[in-house]
Amino acid sequence: MNTPLPEKSFMHLCLRSSDLKADVLALEAKGIALESGPGLGLDGNLQAWIRDPDGNALELMQLSEDSPQRRVARGETAFAG
User: Fold this and answer.
1) Measured distance CA(16)–CA(79) in Å, rounded
2) Which of 2, 4, 22, 64 is paired with 75 by a 20 to 30 Å CA distance?
3) How many domains would you assign to the chain?
4) Quick check: helix, strand or coil at residue 26?
């Protein structure tokens, strides 16, 4: 695992939220600023982005009922992305 990472990538940690609005309000109340969002992502899910103290990107995501991720979680399809 000593292979260097590409200079640019989409590597990040995604945390699933059941109530993104409430989670964003809780983060802001603790002084944590949003990097972007909340907004609708290309996959139809609500998303907001923050950074941890080391600068790593963290995505908060509330799944829509018909999102690809929700269908995979239900076992309806395999994720191919």
Assistant:
1) 17
2) 22
3) 1
4) helix
Q: Tokens 């200079």, residue?
A: 7
Residues in the chain, total = 81
Is there a domain that residue 54 lies in?
yes
Number of H helices, E strands in the chain: 2, 4
**Do the beta carbons of residue 63 and residue 45 sit within 8 Å?**
yes
Please check whether residue 80 lies inside any domain of the structure. no
Does a structural domain hold residue 68? yes
Tens digits of residue pLDDT in 10-67: 678 899 999 999 999 999 999 999 999 999 998 889 999 999 888 889 999 999 988 8
